[in-house]
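Researcher: We are triaging several targets before committing to wet-lab work. For this one, the compound of interest is zinc ion. I'm pasting the protein sequence and the ligand SMILES. What I need is the predicted three-dimensional arrangement of the protein with the ligand bound, expressed as structure tokens, so it can go straight into our comparison scripts without reformatting.
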Amino acid sequence: MLYQRTLAKKVKVTGIGIHSGKKVTMTLHPAEADFGIQFKRTDLLDAPLLKADAQTVGATENNTTIGSGENAVHTVEHLLSCFYGLGINNVLCEIDGPEVPIMDGSGASFVFLLKETGIATLNKSKKFLVVLEKIKVEVGDKWATIEPASKLIIDSTIVFAHPIIKEQRKVFEFSCENYIEEIGRARTFGLLRDVDMLKRKGLIKGGSLDNAIVLDEFKVVNPEGLRFSDEFVRHKILDTIGDISLLGFEIAGKITTYKSGHNLHNLLCRKLLETPGAFEIVTASSLQKEAIEAFALPRAMLPSFQ
Ligand SMILES: [Zn+2]
């Protein structure tokens, strides 16, 4: 049996939003089985809970936003990616502002925080979404597919007209350990030449060398350099995991992306969910061993029963 997970206790984290530039405090609370990941804006009077799922995504430009209008939470993708990466299914995320803090631009701070807080096991089986049929979405020359596989595999290709990035491809076989080692630490990135355009759109007001890899025309500007030579495509995989976790289940399927972004990831989720017969929801016990073993946690993070 592979059980659903939550946090062992509540934990508070403070930081700034990369787009809003605003300081926010987020409190993550343990939640019961089948609660899923839900957000609550505590700075708004009686704002209803926002369930994180593919259908509640209100915007996908430069970030993934849950909800729309005033009751929305922006830039949820890195936090959601870390929850999926550690097999955490149920959390209430209270936040006193419009955007999840960016931390260092990767998932490293969240992984550390969740590890220190502890992970608890709930007495109910995880559910898996098993892909039965290949689905494809495309926008211009960008595309993404999801197809049957015994466990989650992501084959990602990014292409940027920049001498440090160019074309990068990585095939990632999901496991919690691989996620922590290979994906969680990869930071978001931006090109200096896009900064003015993004600022005019009201974005990246909180962006800095402390929370993103910044590239000028030829090189990485950050004095510490890169964490991986292919950190860019690794971050794309981090984003992809966060966005497709909005399917609401653990996933048994292979995702292939070419020049994808939040919009394409969300379109892929929606098209899959809207295609009858393209998937089934099963409990973990009916899956192949390797899909279950992928959710083993490193020794230091072994969960407690709640
Ligand atoms: Zn990202």
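Researcher: Any quick observations?
Model: The chain has two domains: 3-125, 128-293.
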